[in-house]
Each structure stands twice: as structure tokens, then as C-alpha cells.
Amino acid sequence: MISTWLADALQYELWVANDGAHGSIARDIYFSDLPWPIGKVLHWKKIRDVKRLMDITKLNAAEKEEEIYRRATAAYDALSTKLGDQSFLFDDRTLTILYFEFCSPTDADALLLGHVLFVLNALPASSMLRSYLQNYDNLVKYAEDIKVQLVEVGSSSAGSASSDLPSSSTPRKTSSSGQSYKPKPKAKKERTEEEKKSRRRTKYFLAAQLISVLAFLSIMGGVDSSELDDDYDMEYED
């Protein structure tokens, strides 16, 4: 019932009801961050989609409205009867922890809580769905009690989290002379014998490469000069 009859009634209140306040609330919730023309078009499209989903036309609009509110009232009546004076809808479901039994909420409680809080806090006072809901005192009290519990738990957890943080006013550790304490830098890791040998080998290798390149250049230079001398002598004899 919560996800069908009550959900349909809430959609009808937000998108189809003729009261102008309902339309402005839906626009504020869903399209307030969009430019006015885009929000207007999307709002109009959503109204058409909801009417098509609920099969609402100009001919049966009044009949459909009566049916929607009748189902919503029947759902509120059934839920109010089921809840009674209990803390949750299914109070017979208990959770045992260390030999202690606790009443545990269910998915139905989560759905009902979200619906009731939205209707009571988001819809205007002129809403018919809100007026129907307010006729069931135990449903209203049920939602308000859980809301208070959730707010208290949230505030207490936030307070404990802030108390666990280290205080910024804690003074730094100072030495006997009054100067601020500074940690000593870590000493550089001494080079091992293997690293020293590796560095020496690298130097020797580079030096050998340099010597071989110089020797090659000197040999090639000598060969070129001797060839030039031979060519010059041959030309002179001719």
C-alpha cells in the first residue's frame, strides 16, 4: 500500500493537483536549479507523464481524484490499525543481542517514515493528502518520534567525532631552553662497499671508452694523412 496507493496519491498531489502551491513545490524540488524555460518544459512534460501513467483524462479527472484519495485514506487507516501503540509496524519482530531483545524496524517502517515526513514537511497546509494523514495521530507521532531519535543520534555521533579530533591548541613540545622542538633529520645512509665498488667500475668503464675513442680517432687521422701524402707523390711524378 505504501509503494502503490500512497505513492500514487503523493505523485498526484505534486504534479496533477490544481492547487498552484503544489506545482510550485514540485518545481522548487526538481527544477529550481535549471533555467526557467527548461524547468517549465520539464515540469509540463512530467505532468503529462504522470497523467498518462495514472490514466487521467479530462473526462475522468474528478473520478480519478476521488479514487486516489479514497485509496490513500484506506491505506492510512490500515497502517494506523496495524501500528496501534507500537514503536514499529511489526513490533513482534525482535533482535536479540546478549540475551536482550530489542524491537527492530523493517523496510515497511522505512517506507512509511519517508512518506509521512515528506507529506508533513514538504506539502502545504492546503494539501488534501496532508489533511487526511493528520487525522491519524499515531502515524504522526510515530514519524515525529523516530525523527527525534535520528536527530539525537546524528548530533551525538557528530559530537563524539569532533571530540576525537586532536586539539589545535595543544602546545608543541619545547626543550628546556624554551626553544621549539625540532625533530633531528635522519642521517644519510652510509654507502656500502658494494656501492663503492660499483661506482668505481662505472668510472673505469667510462674512462676506457673515452681512451678507445681517442685512440680510434688518432689512428684514423694518421691513415688519412699518409694516404694524402702518397696521392700527392704520385701526382708529382706524373
Automatic annotation (TrEMBL):
Feature: compositional bias, Low complexity: 157-182
One Gene Ontology term, aspect cellular component: mitochondrial outer membrane
Keyword Hydrolase assigned: no
Pfam families xrefs: GST_C_6
Biological process terms in GO annotation: protein targeting to mitochondrion
InterPro entries referenced in this protein's UniProt entry, alphabetically: Metaxin_GST (IPR033468), Mito_Protein_Transport_Metaxin (IPR050931)
Protein's UniProt keywords contain Transmembrane: yes
Region (Disordered): 157-200
Keywords from the named record: Membrane, Transmembrane, Transmembrane helix
Domain of life: Eukaryota
Segments passing through the bilayer: 204-223
Domain Metaxin glutathione S-transferase: 73-146
The protein's name in its UniProt record: Metaxin glutathione S-transferase domain-containing protein
Species name: Triticum turgidum subsp. durum (Durum wheat)
